[in-house]
Amino acid sequence: MNLLSIGGSDPSCGAGIQSDIKTFDSLNAYGLTIITAVTSQNTSRFGIIEPVSKKILQNQIDSIFSDFKINGIKIGMVYNSDIIKIIYNEIKNANIPIVLDPVIRSTTGGSLIEKSAVKDFKNFLIPLATVITPNKFEAEFLSKNKIDSRKSLQKIAQKIQNMGTENVVITGLEIKNNQISDFILEGKKQYTVSSKKILKINHGSGCNYAASMLFALANGKPIKEAVKFSKQFTVNSIKNAKNIGSGVAITQVKNEDVIRVELTHAINSFIEIKDAYKKIPECQTNFVFSKKNPKSIEDVLGVSGRIVKTGNRIVVAGELSYGGSKHVATALISMNKKYPEIRSAINLKYDREDISKLTKAGLVISSYNRSEEPKKVKSKEGSSIVWGIKMAIEMSEKQPDVIYHRGDFGKEPMTIVFAKTPSLVIKKFLRLFN
């Protein structure tokens, strides 16, 4: 995955394009950059800004887009109107996620956009954004209003949305004691995502947030899940912040096991779905996500136990580990051999009405009959699932989204939902509740 950061250079590597490269790399994405301005700053003070010329900016853009496929763009510091207009003209037709981080000033005190450029920023860049991620100060700056109540917060988010973007995320709000909240206006939906307040002044968290959100969106996550992902990523970066210089601490991003991060968030989403517990079978559920081209269950991350129902609640009984799942992981590997892009799966309780719902929702459904399973397959440990998935694939003209069987003597009926990523598994699972 190639992610592009368009923004200013920070020699302290706390923010700007340097911070974005670190974030992308920690998530195993390849970071590309287009520099709009060179700043001189460190952890204690802000020096001067030198915006790049129109010629070198245009040449950078031409170099990147002529050679690389870009999966997402983050726009940070843009400083003046010339820069804004060139960026707009070059990416206005891009059909990929764009995260706009409206950096107005540096943590160390520097002004990062000319006053005369603010109007063009609003007119040209905000309408391009899939999502804009201002903090409290930036939201107040863009809207020319103060956030002093829940009502004013909603009005300011709406005002920014009316500038042309559909999704607004206002970060760093102290709505409740000891918590930091992000307010999200997603189309017409409003909600907040909160975390415990960390008493640590830092440099770089805003960039970490927007860059990790771009990664999430480029991976197909819906806005709410992308917010949760970037929130947790940023909290971790603040917790790990270090006093490298003599001033404020610089956030630190550590290399993440993206597979683990993705699956963790999907399991958390699954747990939160109302009535999801009703879909858990007697043998309980596992949810898996594999490395590319898995050769054995050791290449597949799953719960070393089960996702179980206790009354009307769901509990994860066990830790995520590679090789933690046997049956669902084996089913996934069998599917992956035919369709290498399929790397995630979850097993659910078989229900004829559920199969009907998923069929009506447009998913491709296939099945196999366990009573037709050859004796030599039944007698060999682990062969039944491989045989069954293979049969279901052969029976379907297209790649199945769902494979089920109606059970056999001593074998519980089962449904397995497959997708490229855990978040897409959840998206398919939600069709049961529409």
Could you explain the architecture of this structure?
This protein is α/β, with parallel strands linked by helices. It folds into 2 domains: 255 residues, UDP-N-acetylmuramoyl-L-alanine:D-glutamate ligase, CATH 3.40.1190.20; 171 residues, Class II aldolase/adducin N-terminal domain (L-fuculose-1-phosphate Aldolase, 3-Layer(aba) Sandwich), CATH 3.40.225. Helix content is 35%, strand content 24%. It contains 14 helices and 20 strands. The strands form 4 sheets. Strands 3-2-1-4-5-6-7-8-9 form a 9-stranded mixed β-sheet. Helix 2 packs parallel to helix 3, helix 3 runs parallel beside helix 4 and helix 9 packs parallel to helix 14. The radius of gyration is 24 Å and the shape is elongated. The two termini are 32 Å apart.
Pick out its properties.
434 residues; alpha/beta; UDP-N-acetylmuramoyl-L-alanine:D-glutamate ligase; L-fuculose-1-phosphate Aldolase; nine-stranded mixed β-sheet; 14 helices; elongated
N- to C-terminal separation? 32 Å
What's the architecture of the largest domain, going by CATH? Answer: 3-Layer(aba) Sandwich
Q: Mean pLDDT, nearest integer?
A: 91
Class computed from helices, strands and strand pairing:
alpha/beta
Strand content: 15-25%
User: How many domain regions?
Assistant: 2
Q: Which of globular, elongated, flat, extended, rod-shaped describes the shape?
A: elongated
Biggest sheet: strands side by side, in what order?
Answer: 3-2-1-4-5-6-7-8-9
Q: What is the CATH third-level topology name of the largest domain?
A: UDP-N-acetylmuramoyl-L-alanine:D-glutamate ligase
**Percentage of residues in helical conformation:** 25-40%
How many DSSP E strands? 20
Largest sheet: 9 strands, mixed
Number of helical regions: 14
Low-confidence stretches: none
